[in-house]
Design goal:
The protein is mostly helical. Helix content is about 75%, strand content about 0%. Helix 4 packs across helix 7 and helix 5 runs antiparallel to helix 10.
Length: about 210
């Protein structure tokens, strides 16, 4: 990355972090673009180089913050010696649940938008290399693995499950608190993966376990 590109990335990061701070303290509707650029110390024209309006920066910020959650989980996974694919996915999901439980402000902002759709519609269009690492995580785990039928759908279901159930359990203790719900989430993730595993592979896995 040359100096110009690095400066652009720094300005974009500054706008994103400033917007996050204002959105979570004042609310999106009470935060103006003028507020964001003033706090970030950049000209308003600079804002429009990266974002269409404050709702565009909100959407990209949701994707950006979600990507950071996945990357932190992946870094923690790399520090382990877990090799089985199913257990690697369970580790990632469990780590993500912990991160969201420890940062209610972040969860409240992301709301129920920790989703595959966010990544597909926002991150790829953004051209920001710091965010598309999520796809490296996905492809490194599933890209060349033929054991699962339509792994993209499988990952979509897992992410949607985690995002929606964590939101209600962590912020509202509905239907129960997150620690009581956590084992059920992880069990359901295993069941989703089993459902997407081909019949032949399922029999092979059973033979290995036996």
């Amino acid at each position: 990355m040359n100096k110009i590109d690095k400066n652009k990335q720094i300005k974009r990061e500054s706008l994103l972090e400033t917007a996050f701070r204002l959105f979570t303290s004042k609310g999106i509707h009470k935060t103006s673009i003028s507020d964001i650029v003033a706090d970030a110390g950049v000209a308003k024209g600079t804002f429009y180089l990266y974002f269409k309006d404050k709702y565009d920066i909100r959407n990209k910020l949701i994707a950006h913050k979600s990507s950071e959650v996945f990357k932190r989980a992946d870094l923690a996974l790399q520090a382990t010696d877990i090799t089985r694919l199913e257990e690697r996915v369970i580790f990632l999901v469990d780590n993500i649940i912990t991160q969201l439980a420890e940062n209610r402000t972040l969860l409240g902002f992301i709301s129920k938008n920790l989703s595959w759709g966010v990544f597909k519609s926002v991150l790829i269009e953004s051209g920001d290399d710091s965010d598309v690492d999520f796809y490296d995580i996905y492809h490194s785990m599933f890209g060349d693995d033929g054991r699962f039928e339509n792994p993209e759908v499988m990952v979509f279901m897992i992410i949607e499950l985690v995002g929606s159930t964590c939101y209600s359990a962590i912020l509202y203790n509905e239907p129960v608190g997150i620690e009581e719900l956590r084992p059920y989430i992880l069990r359901t993730v295993r069941e989703i993966m089993a459902m997407h595993r081909g019949a032949d592979q399922t029999e092979t896995d059973r033979g290995i376990m036996d």
